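Data card: per-record layout.
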Amino acid sequence: MTVTITTHSPAQTQALAERLAKLLRPGDVLAYTGPMGAGKTTFTVGLARGLGSSDWVSSPTFALVQEYRGPVPLCHFDFYRITGVDDLYATGFFDYLDGTRVLAVEWSERIPDALPEGAIHIRFEPLENDCRRITISTPAGDDRLAARRVMFPVSPCAFLPFIFPPTPWHTSLLFLCAAAGFAAAQGVLGHCVRACAARRFVLSCA
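The structure for this 206-residue chain is written out next.
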């Protein structure tokens, strides 16, 4: 199954990863692809937070791998400098495939034959400004993305940050709607969602 989402800020990219983390389990491998500066490390910040880690997340470009502690440990690889299988052995990559942690692999296109068959592929495409198109694909038989209510709650209040970029009027609207009560807020924001979804939010499933 494939899901494509357009985010409009680093905060939204992190929030998406945090929701995806709720669907992950130890042993999952996330194979990132996309150009430099496409939001892969930003996404991993939200992923680590969603897995329960409070460790500082940084790009492992020179260290090759960063490990983040938590209820489900996360190992973050950067294979930009990898040139072959021998380099992979030097990083200890195969030792990490022990089913006890989640692996996030940047530049996974450099090691296609080393990825497990059940890897989840995530493609990052930079758009204008801070917008990113993120495509998440699971292998055949893995229907976790079908439970996308976990990733994309049906409440209009939860959808709104993905429809509008963070702005002062956006924050004020959320505050006023919350003060007015959930029922009223749902009606107002539902109208906003229907009016603006086609313009500011992209979600497709296949």
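Known properties of this structure: Confidence is low (pLDDT under 50) at residues 152-166, 191-206. The longest helix spans residues 182-200.

See the next section for split statistics.
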